[in-house]
Design brief:
alpha/beta; two-stranded antiparallel sheet; elongated; 306 residues; 13 helices; 16% strand
Length: 306
C-alpha cells in the first residue's frame, strides 16, 4: 500500500518529501514546522491573495507554506535564517519560477531592497517599491520585533497574516480594559483580528502553547492623526510603566513628573486621571500625547533619567 502511494506522487511531492526527511527543527532557532494542511489553508485564505500580489514570507522552514503561497501570487520572497534550509529550499523551489529564497535575518533586512526585482537597491528613477503582503509562521520569541519591523518600515505591507502565540494575538486585538503596549502599538498602525486558532499538535515538534492566525490590515497612515510616533510611544510606555496604577500615577512615574501635573495633563486631554492605562484607546493616547508635547516639548522632562 505504501509503495503504491509513493508511485502516484508527482516529482514535486517527492522533492517535498526529501525536504521533510533532511530538514530537522533546530531548537536554537525555535523552529516548529506546521504539518496541519487545514491550518495551512486557513492561513493562506486569511491573506486574501490575488495573482498580482507580492508576498514576503518570514521563516519558510520546509517550504510548505511557501508552495501554497506561490500557487496563488505573482512572487514570493522567502527570508530564512537557517543556511541549511535555504540550500534545500533553493533546490526545491527552483522549478516554480516565482519564489526567491533569501538567506538572512529579516530584522536586519532592507524591505525596499527585497522588493526590487533584482533583490538589490532599486534604480533612483524606478519609483516607489510595489505593494506587498506578509504571510508567515514566525518564531514566537521575535513576534514583537517582527511586528515592529514591518509596521515601522519605510515601506509598510498592506496586510500581515502571522501565525503567532494565542495569548499574543489576543493581546494585540484586545479592547478597553485589556489593552497593553503591544495592543496599542499594533492598533496605531492597523486593524487586527484573529482569523482562527491552531492547536499545538498541528506542529512538529509541538510548541508548549496553542497558536492563532493574526491578520492586520495596515492603515496608509497611523491612526488618530498621529504624526510623531516617537513621542506617542514615549507617552504610551510611560503610561504602562505601572500598569496596575491609575493613569495619573503611572504617567507621573514614567515621565518622572509631579502627580498633580500629570493629572492636569490628563484632564486637559479629556481623560479621567483615575482610569487605568489598559482602559485607554489609541485615540485617547494620541490626545494625551498632543497635550504632553505642548507642555513638555519632544524632549523628556529635565529631571528624567536618560
Amino acid at each position: 500500500m505504501y509503495s503504491s502511494s509513493m508511485s502516484r506522487r508527482s516529482p514535486g511531492q517527492v522533492r517535498a518529501a526529501s525536504v521533510r526527511r533532511t530538514a530537522r527543527p533546530r531548537k536554537g532557532l525555535a523552529q516548529h514546522f506546521l504539518t496541519d494542511h487545514g491550518a495551512l489553508a486557513r492561513i493562506v485564505d486569511a491573506a486574501e491573495l490575488g495573482p498580482d500580489d507580492i508576498v514576503i514570507e518570514v521563516g519558510p522552514g520546509r517550504g510548505v507554506l511557501t508552495r501554497a503561497l506561490a500557487a496563488r501570487v505573482r512572487r514570493v520572497i522567502a527570508v530564512e535564517l537557517d543556511a541549511a534550509l535555504c540550500r534545500e529550499l533553493e533546490r526545491e523551489m527552483a522549478a516554480l519560477g516565482n519564489v526567491t529564497i533569501v538567506q538572512g535575518d529579516i530584522l536586519g533586512t532592507d524591505v525596499v531592497a527585497l522588493l526590487s526585482p533584482s533583490g538589490g537597491p532599486p534604480p533612483p528613477s524606478g519609483g516607489p517599491p510595489p505593494p506587498y503582503k506578509v504571510v508567515a509562521n514566525i518564531p514566537y520569541y521575535i513576534t514583537g520585533a517582527i511586528l515592529r519591523f514591518f509596521l515601522e518600515a519605510a515601506r509598510r505591507p498592506s496586510r500581515l497574516v502571522l501565525l503567532v502565540q494565542k495569548e499574543v494575538a489576543q493581546s494585540v486585538v484586545a479592547g478597553p480594559g485589556e489593552m497593553s503596549v503591544i495592543g496599542v502599538s499594533v492598533q496605531l498602525y492597523g486593524s487586527p483580528r484573529i482569523m482562527g486558532y491552531v492547536p499545538a499538535e498541528a506542529f512538529r515538534p509541538p510548541p508548549k502553547v496553542d497558536s492563532a492566525i493574526l491578520r492586520i490590515d495596515v492603515y496608509v497612515k497611523p491612526a488618530a492623526g498621529v504624526r510623531d510616533t516617537e513621542a506617542f510611544f514615549r507617552i504610551v510606555r510611560a503610561g504602562f510603566s505601572s500598569r496596575r496604577k491609575q493613569i495619573r500615577n503611572a504617567l507621573a512615574n514614567g515621565l518622572r513628573v509631579d502627580v498633580g501635573l500629570a493629572g492636569r495633563w490628563l484632564v486637559e486631554a479629556g481623560l479621567d486621571p483615575t482610569r487605568r492605562p489598559q482602559m485607554l484607546l489609541v485615540e485617547e493616547w494620541a490626545r494625551l500625547t498632543d497635550v504632553v508635547r505642548r507642555h513638555q516639548g519632544d524632549q523628556p522632562a529635565p529631571n528624567a533619567t536618560p
